[in-house]
Amino acid sequence: MSPQTAWVATRKGLFELRHEGARGWQIAHLSFIAEPVTMMLPAPPGQRMLAALNLGHFGVKLHGSDDGGRNWRELAAPSFPPQPEGAPGPAWKLVQIWSLERDAAGAIWAGSIPGGLFRSRDGGESWQLLDALWQREERQEWMGGGYDAPGIHSICPHPAAPDETLVAISCGGAWRTLDAGQTWGLRAAGMKALFMPPGRQDDPNIQDPHRVVRCAAVPEVLWCQHHCGIWRSADNGASWQALQAEPSSFGFAVAAHPTDPLTAWFVPAVKDERRLPVDAALCVLRTRDGGQSFEALRQGLPQVHCYDLVYRHGLAVDSTGRHLLMGSTTGGLWASEDGGEHWQTVSLNLPPIYAIRF
Question: Residue 291 pLDDT > 50, yes or no?
Answer without folding.
Answer: yes
